[in-house]
Amino acid sequence: MRGLIVDYCGVLDGPEEERARWRALLRAAQGNGVAVAVLSNDPGGPGADHIREFETSGLADAVVLSGEVGAEKPEPEIFDITAERLGLPVADCVLVDDSIVNIHGAVERGMVGVFYQQFDRAVVEITGLFELEGEF
After folding, report:
1. DSSP state, 88?
2. What's 40's DSSP letter?
3. In angstroms, what CA-CA distances link 70 with 44, 46, 87, 89, 109?
4. What are the pLDDT digits (tens) for 115-124?
5. Peptide linkage before 74 cis (omega within 30 of 0)
6. Which domains does the chain have, with CATH numbers?
7. How far from chain centre, in Å, is Cα 108?
8. Which residues contact 96 (CB under 8 A, 6 or more apart)?
9. I want to staple 8 with a disulfide (CB 3.0 to 4.6 A). Which of 29, 40, 47, 117 is the partner?
10. Closest CA to 111 of 12, 57, 37
11. What is the pLDDT of residues 2-19, one digit of tens each?
12. Taking the CB of residue 9, how many other CB atoms lie within 10 A of it?
C-alpha cells in the first residue's frame, strides 16, 4: 500500500485532540513515503477552503472534492480520480471513511477499506497496513 485516502467529514473534522492525532499520523505516513489525499463529497467552492488547507499546509498531497470533479463516493470514478491525483493505481490505496457504503464502493473498485468509527481502532489498522511506528 502506497496511498492513504481519508474522508473529511466524520473522520478528520473531529475534536481538536483527535485532529492533532490525525495530523501526526498523516505526517508519519508521508515521512514513510505514503501519498496522502483527503477525499470529500463536499460541493467545493470557497466554503471548502478549510478542507483544501490539508493540501496547502502539506498534510496531504491532494484534496479531491466531489463537487469540483463531478463524481462522488461511492461512484468508482471518484476513486480513480483520487488515485490518479496521487500518481498511484487504485489497488495501492486505502480509503478511510465513516460510511460503510463508501467503503464498499472503494473495495469493489480494488482499494482496501478501513471503516472509521473511532480513531484508536482505525489507527491500529492504518499503522499495520503502512508499517508506521509511533504514538498517535
Report:
1. S
2. E
3. 11, 17, 20, 20, 18
4. 999 999 999 9
5. yes
6. 3-130 (3.40.50.1000)
7. 17
8. 4, 5, 6, 7, 11, 114, 116, 122, 126
9. 40
10. 37
11. 999 999 999 999 999 999
12. 13
pLDDT in tens, the chain (136 residues): 999 999 999 999 999 999 999 999 999 999 999 999 999 999 999 999 999 999 999 999 999 999 999 999 999 999 999 999 999 999 999 999 999 999 999 999 999 999 999 999 999 999 999 999 999 9
- Do 7 and 136 form a contact (C-beta atoms < 8 A)? no
| Cell, residue 93 | 490505496
Residues 6+ apart with CB under 8 A from 51: 8, 38, 40, 42, 63, 65
